[in-house]
Amino acid sequence: MGTAPRHASPQSSGLEQNIAGLLCWLPLGPVPILASLFFLVAQPYKSNKFIRFHAAQSIFTFVALVGLAVGLLVFGGILTLIFPPLIFVVWMLWWLFGLASIVLFAYMAFKAYSMESPKLPYVGEMVTKYVDV
Fold it and tell me: Is 45 a member of any domain?
């Protein structure tokens, strides 16, 4: 994982940058998506590069994880149709996928709270390419 440059512009009002970045990654249900969408459209957050980077990367990561989940669902469905006892392997894959997703979001929440902006592989590159950060 590469690291994007630190953004040290002070927050004039509202939440501190590190708290806003943390909310973009907080692994609690819909909190990261709702917070990220809010920070991308609301002033003064949308003009802050640090917050915008974390909000956009969180959304891109969520979309990528949903795509992987759909692929895992299709793959697991095919496996269980071919050989039904493989449902246990599919269940274990789902469990590992969920755990890895929570760990990733918790790690990124910690990094955002620490005022760091690590770029995730693939997703981080897309964010810097398509979002003005």
Answer: yes
Predicted confidence (pLDDT) per residue in 59-85, tens digit: 999 999 999 999 999 999 998 999 898
For the record, the structure tokens of 71 come out as 């692929």
Residue 68's closest CA among 24, 91, 98, 89?
98
Q: Has residue 95 been placed in a domain?
A: yes
Please state the domain count of the chain: 1
DSSP per-residue letters across 32-74: HHHHHHHHHHSTTGGG-HHHHHHHHHHHHHHHHHHHHHHHHHH
Report yes or no on 8 lying in a domain: no
User: Omega into 10 within 30° of 0, i.e. cis?
Assistant: no
pTM of the model: 0.82
Task: Give the structural domain span for 64.
Answer: 15-115
